[in-house]
Structures are given as structure tokens and as C-alpha cells.
Amino acid sequence: MKYVIYARKSSEDEDRQILSIEAQITELKEFAAKEKLEIVASFQEAKTAKEPGRIKFAEMLSFLEQGKADGILSWHPDRLARNSVDGGKIIHLVDREVIKSLKFPCFWFEPTPQGLFMLNIAFGQSKYFVDNLRENVKRGLRQKIRRGEWPGRPPVGYVNNLATKKIEIDKIKSPKIRKFFELYSTGNYTFQSLANWCHENKLTGFWDKPFSISSSQRTLQNIFYLGLMKYKGELHEGVHEPIISKKLFDKCQEVLKDRGKPQKVKKHSFDFLGLMKCPCSAAITAEKKIKKSGRQYIYYRCTKKKGLCLEKHFLRQEELLEQIKSHLQKVSLSSQDTEKVLFELEKDENLAKEQAKTTVQNLKLEILELDQKLDKLLDLYLSNKLSQDEYTLKKEKFLNQKVEIQEKISDFEQKGLSWLEPAREFVLSLNKAEKILKSQNRSEMTSFLKNIGSNHLLQNRQLIFKPVIPYDLVADPPSGGEVNLTLPRWQRYGESNPASQLEKLMS
Fold this sequence. Notes:
Radius of gyration: 36 Å
Distance between the termini: 107 Å
Number of strands: 13
Structural class: alpha/beta
Helix content: 40-55%
CATH class of the largest domain: Alpha Beta
Largest sheet: 4 strands, parallel
CATH topology of the largest domain: Rossmann fold
Strand content: 5-15%
Number of domains: 3
């Protein structure tokens, strides 16, 4: 009787105690020599038997059906099959006498009804072991998620600490990941330019693979960097330290959304398009005129697409540029004065932190209330009063609120009052206006005026600048020529504002 050897070893957890393929082959050859079995072929593969579809296993069965061998020699029945399909094939071939004999060093088999019954039990036990192991693994993964621990490999910027079995921040890559988000949030970087930046700054993915366009997009959409985790469509709170703030993440999502909209192809590129509208609410367009002398001029006017419009005037780009410079001058602050104001803000920071303690306590109470809501939400879900979709959406909403409050607490404890950082940003933006005036960069002029104002109008050949809070206090000071920058509208909890130092410098 002729036999084929079949050896299999997978990398799955349940096979860790199984002999390697080489060891199986050695043991099986020794067993064949001892039992005086004729071996005509050997089939080996490193693949799990949980699911049907093994290539070498199929080749072996075909080999047997062609009559080239009469039996199989393997270490144990679970090497042949751990699923009902492959186990059924073996038993069917035994019933048809295609397989006349099965030999195992550690399992007895005879092609009798009793032998087939025991073989069927062995295959069933193998399948039960795999199914039970799968459920145990899933249960373990779910428990890790409940503890706020990610069950797999963390994204770039984090590392698995094998000693503590915790996910920790990668001190080398995490600052680059934060800068990665900051660059994209400006709206000036595409996925390709980000990939180039990663290459220049040696920021690589797993196994040192370079960042691609697709990996850049996945990174920007990964909420893991916020301290949250999404597992099988459900949002969970993680215990790992966040790398970026929710504010920065949301800004990147806005840019992603805007980039996803279809872009109109522009025939011409004009510097100040999109900055202002006509009083009739129609858009302002620009056109190029060429005089008989050959000189070219650019004019801005109403598109007349909203019906009757009383504006009949054209404004030359040179005149518009001078008006824009005038408005920028009103909201500009020299570098020397900027340093003075920032110094005063820094002096008041320690005092602000003391005053913020009460606010931090209130915010922590809000977190406790959210935790209670999450517990009640889970109770409703477990009692079948909420569907899976309703539970997932409400949980995601509560967790996002919790992250926002935690960031506010961090802001109060580390930076002082919540308005203090916007105050710094405001002062620095005034200094940015000064720098833009010096650089004469027209695209930056347009972007800056859009950011500090809204609904600017072009009326009677005049740019009517409409700054938002707090820039209106600088651009349009009250009568008397003094600038009042106590900025009460910045205050969220009624504290005094050190930004009033700017009033002394600009009065």
C-alpha cells in the first residue's frame, strides 16, 4: 500500500505547541520506517485549517483520486482538517475507498464504522477547539477595548511597550505627526505635498515604508490621535495619551471636506476675487482690459446676477490694493509692541491659573455627569430600549463632548484661562498684518482679511471692511481715538482680561 505524507503548521495561537513542519516530517518518516510503509509523495504547507481552500491539501486529494497513492500519513487528524468541509471530504473519500488507510503516530484509525465514527469525533473536536478559541480571543479583545486599550498595533506616532504592555507615545515620531496635522490644517498642503514633507523630515510608516497619498489621508482621519478609538463601528475612550487636540483634528476634517468638493476651473487668476460682495448680494468679478497703448488693467465690478443693481462703478485693482493696505494698517501691530503685550500677558498667566481653579472644578463635574449619561445609555442599550445604531450615535456624541471638556481643563491647568491663548493669537495676528504689509503678498492679504472679517462689500468704488470680534475694536475704535481692548466678549466666566495692556500701547 502506498502512502503520502501530509504536514501542516500554521502561525495561529493554537498551533504554538504543535511540532514544526520539519519535525513532523522527521517523526513521520521514522514512523513509516518502523511500520514499513511505502511513501510515494510528501505535501507540506504553512496555512491554517480553520477555513477550506488549502492548496496543498487539494493537491493531495487530487493525487489520491488519481490512484497514485492509497493512504495518508499525518501527525494527527487536526493536521488534516479543522473545518467541517475538509473533514467531510476525507470521510467521503474513505467511504468511496479512494483513501484505503489513514495512519497517525498519535491516533488510531481503521476504515471501519467504529473507526470512521472516532475520526468524525476527532474532526469535530478540532473544529470545536478552533471555534471556542475564536470566541475566547474575541472576548479578550472586547475586554481590552472596554479598558480603553487598543488590541492591535497602534498608528504611527505610538509604540507598544512590551514590558508594560501599554501603548506609549513615540518621542521621535509624535512631534512630526503633530506638525503633520498642523500643516494640513492651514489648507496650503495637498496629500502629495504632505507625503513629500514626510520624506524630507524622515517620517515613515510601519517597517519604514514612506508615507503615500492614501496613508496621509488615513492618518488625518484617524481619531486615535485624539485619545479615542473606533472598534467595529463603535467609538470608545482610550487610555493612551492624545497627540493632537480636537480643535486641530476638526480643522483638518473641515479642510478634507472642502477639498472633497468639486473645484471649478478658473480661466484667470485674480488676486482679490472672493474677498467682497456687492450690496445687491451678488458676487464681485474681475476682468482684464487692454488699452490701445498696450497697457493692461484689472477692474473689479458686480456680476449683476442677482437682478437690479445700482452699482455702476468699476474699481481698478491698484486702487483696491491701496484701500486694502489702509485696512491692514488699522489692524497691524509692530513687532516691538507685540513683544510688550505678550510679556504683559505672560506676567498675568500665573494669576489667571489661580482664578481658573473654580472653573476647572465645574468642568470636572460636567465630565462626571457625562460619565453618568454614558452608564445610563449603556443600561438602555442592554435592556433593548435602544438599537445598536442609536446607541452608537449617542455614545459618539457624549464621548466627543467629553474630549472637548478634557481639553478645556487641560487648557486651564496648563495655559491659564481659556481666553488667554486666543488673546495671544489675536496679538500675533495683528503682528502678522504688519508682516503682510511689508511682504506685499496679495494672496496673504486676501486670506487674512477673510479670516478677520466677513461680508466685506464693494460699494461706490470703496471697500467696506467688516471685521469680526475682536478685530472690530481695533479697526473701528470708539470716538476719542482710544482703543478699548478689555474684550469682555472673549470672557466666558467673567474674569478680567490682561489683553487690556494693548489699550495702553495703542492709545
